């Protein structure tokens, strides 16, 4: 295939380096100790801010908001999952679920060259004016995860190929040495790919994401203020700091390709806090009479299901791939949509009022909206929602008396836009030390509890926190400035402004003028216009993945700990 041909169109380039999960709670002490020299340099010669993330502070939601400059209710990605209309089934979100135009497409339309690597929710890759490698929502190594497709072979030939995360972090919990080794292998590969493409194909705009800090903190987090242990045997207390140092070293090498005339952004999608216990939200709802759980499957039905699974694997091993594909197509045609599945098979929706299908939200089972709705819209809906919010905020850990829920919101308080109707009716933010636990997750972790225990051990040491990281350096960025506040949706309009482009009025974010030299703002004030195709659209349903692809992504997200 023809090799990629690119050149920059401007003498000012822009690079965005995403450090998934990075937090100043870890960065600042390490900078003070002299262990992060490159981030320290960027902060002393630029501006910084604690970057307020989305609700929920999940990677697919937050990175999409950062890239589009829009609230989740406008771009439509509100979780790893999205609900299907008139159904209790869900399907995995990806780039096809996005109802807004990200910055790399805006720049491509403006004639700028772009390079994008490993940003979540970018599969399938956009046909940008440059190159793109899709993120964690890519189904498998041999899927069409790159644009142009010729990059797959080129990277294999030049640096040994690009690796998707293929590690089972849950099973590695018993082998932390393997977990750490895997973290570094993926980080080294991300860096090698980024370095090669920056050097081989310079672009006006370059955006890459390193996920190692997030994965390390989920598994090895310890509270910087003290008091929380990682929960992993052996001396792994320094893993998080070591990963930050390795990322800092790689940032320093990448920045050698850029000069003082270029704009440098370091961003994270969220910060981190501790987890000590998981909270079985659906069991709590059932215990308070808001949900009806079906009894566990009897032994003979469990055995029947396992025999069926064994039979499927046996068929796959002996039939030609073409025959297996035909069987898959036939099976898919009997389902509501490609790769859709039921996350609450043990809940009897006929007598259920509320249910949780993800870590940060609760849906009400509304008559006329859900197939078996029991909650009347209007006064009944509002009364039930208010009652649930009050009870959630009053929820305490019986062992310690600590409050479990930090904040609880009505959907419309945090989610606006024409796609907000897909969002949960109630959003919750967890207090440090507590996080959602699903029933299948509990089973996968082999957590031994009774059917009455709402509070259980959790496999993670750390969870997401809303305060992420923003560091900016450039010819017109103030040096040594700490901004009082910044929102994740402000990043895209600020980037476009600094690149000399008009900002789409559809963006919810604002240019971070407090970080920009006043003389430059006076000479080049922000300019806005309507961009064709940038208005949010309702994403097509049932087109995100085939069943086989969905199974591959679900397996990866379960292994990483993100899906129940």
Name of the CATH superfamily of the largest domain: Alkaline Phosphatase, subunit A
The beta-strand count equals 22
The CATH C-level class name of the largest domain: Alpha Beta
Overall residue-averaged pLDDT value: 86
CATH topology of the largest domain: Alkaline Phosphatase, subunit A
**Could you tell me the strand content as a percent range?**
15-25%
The coarse overall form would be globular
Count of discrete structural domains? 2
Radius of gyration using CA atoms only: 24 Å
> What about the largest sheet?
10 strands, mixed
- Number of helical segments? 18
Distance between the termini: 41 Å
Regions with little confidence, pLDDT below 50 for 5+ residues: 298-307, 309-337
Structural class: alpha/beta
**Helical residue percent?**
25-40%
What's the CATH architecture name of the largest domain? 3-Layer(aba) Sandwich
How does this model look, in words?
This protein has 564 residues and is an alpha/beta fold. It folds into two domains: 14-270 and 466-560, 3-Layer(aba) Sandwich (Alkaline Phosphatase, subunit A), CATH 3.40.720; 277-296 and 346-459, Gyrase A, domain 2 (2-Layer Sandwich). Helix content is 34%, strand content 17%. The chain has 18 helices and 22 strands. The protein has helices at 24-32, 37-44, 59-68, 72-75, 103-109, 150-159, 176-200, 212-220, 239-255, 281-287, 299-318, 321-332, 379-394, 411-414, 439-444, 491-498, 518-523, 547-560; strands at residues 14-19, 47-52, 81-83, 90-92, 114-119, 130-134, 146-147, 205-210, 263-267, 271-279, 354-355, 361-364, 405-410, 426-430, 433-436, 455-457, 462-465, 467-473, 481-482, 486-487, 503-504, 528-529. Strands 1, 2, 5, 6, 7, 8, 9, 18, 19 and 20 form a ten-stranded mixed β-sheet that branches. Strands 10, 15, 16 and 17 form a four-stranded mixed β-sheet that branches. The chain has a four-stranded antiparallel β-sheet with strand order 11-12-14-13. A hairpin with a 5-residue loop joins strand 11 and strand 12 (361-364). Helix 7 (176-200) packs parallel to helix 9 (239-255) and helix 8 (212-220) packs antiparallel against helix 9. It is globular, with a radius of gyration of 24 Å.
């Amino acid at each position: 295939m023809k090799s990629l041909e690119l050149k920059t169109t401007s003498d000012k380039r822009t690079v965005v380096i995403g450090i998934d999960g990075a937090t100043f709670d870890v960065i600042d002490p390490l900078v003070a100790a002299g262990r992060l020299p490159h981030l320290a340099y960027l902060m002393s010669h630029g501006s910084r801010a604690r970057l307020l993330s989305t609700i929920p502070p999940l990677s697919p939601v937050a990175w999409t908001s950062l890239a589009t400059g829009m609230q989740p209710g406008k771009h439509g990605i509100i979780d790893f999952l999205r609900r299907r209309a008139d159904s209790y089934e869900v399907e995995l979100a990806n780039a096809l679920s996005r109802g807004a135009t990200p910055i790399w497409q805006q720049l491509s339309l403006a004639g700028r060259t772009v390079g994008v690597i490993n940003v979540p929710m970018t599969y399938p890759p956009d046909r940008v004016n440059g190159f793109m490698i899709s993120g964690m929502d890519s189904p498998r190594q041999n899927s069409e995860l790159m644009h142009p497709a010729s990059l797959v072979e080129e990277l294999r030939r030049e640096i040994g190929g690009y690796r998707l995360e293929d590690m089972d972090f849950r099973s590695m919990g018993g082998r932390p040495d393997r977990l750490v080794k895997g973290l570094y292998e993926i980080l080294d590969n991300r860096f090698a790919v980024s370095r090669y493409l920056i050097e081989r194909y310079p672009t006006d705009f370059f955006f890459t994401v390193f996920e190692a800090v997030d994965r390390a903190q989920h598994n090895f987090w310890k509270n910087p203020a003290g008091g929380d242990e990682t929960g992993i045997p052996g001396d792994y207390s320094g893993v998080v700091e070591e990963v930050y140092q390795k990322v800092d070293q790689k940032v320093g090498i990448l920045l050698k390709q850029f000069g003082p005339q270029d704009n440098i952004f370091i961003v994270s999608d969220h910060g981190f806090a501790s987890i000590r216990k998981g909270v079985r939200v659906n069991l709590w709802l059932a215990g308070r009479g808001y949900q009806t759980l079906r009894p566990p499957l009897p032994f003979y039905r469990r055995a029947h299901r396992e025999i069926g699974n064994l039979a499927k694997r046996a068929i796959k091993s002996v039939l030609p791939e073409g025959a297996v594909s035909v069987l898959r197509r036939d099976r898919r045609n009997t389902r509501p949509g490609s790769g859709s599945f039921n996350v609450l098979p043990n809940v009897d929706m006929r007598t259920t009022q509320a249910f949780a299908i993800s870590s940060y939200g609760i849906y009400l089972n509304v008559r006329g909206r859900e197939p078996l709705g029991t909650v009347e819209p209007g006064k009944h809906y509002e009364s039930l929602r208010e009652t649930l919010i009050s009870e959630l905020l009053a929820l305490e850990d019986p062992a310690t008396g600590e409050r479990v829920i930090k904040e609880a919101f009505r959907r419309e308080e945090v989610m606006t836009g024409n796609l907000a109707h897909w969002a949960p009716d109630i959003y919750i933010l967890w207090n440090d030390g507590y996080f959602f636990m699903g029933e299948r997750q509990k089973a996968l972790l082999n957590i031994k509890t009774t059917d009455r225990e709402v509070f259980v051990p959790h496999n993670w040491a750390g969870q997401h926190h809303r305060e992420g990281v923003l560091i900016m350096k450039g010819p017109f960025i103030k040096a040594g400035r700490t901004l009082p506040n910044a929102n994740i949706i402000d990043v895209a309009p600020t980037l476009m402004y600094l690149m000399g482009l008009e900002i789409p009025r559809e963006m919810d974010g604002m240019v971070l003028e407090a970080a920009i030299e006043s003389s430059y703002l006076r000479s080049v004030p922000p300019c806005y216009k309507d961009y064709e195709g940038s208005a949010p659209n309702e994403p097509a349903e049932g087109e995100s993945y085939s069943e086989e692809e969905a199974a591959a992504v679900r397996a990866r997200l379960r292994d990483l700990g993100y899906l129940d």
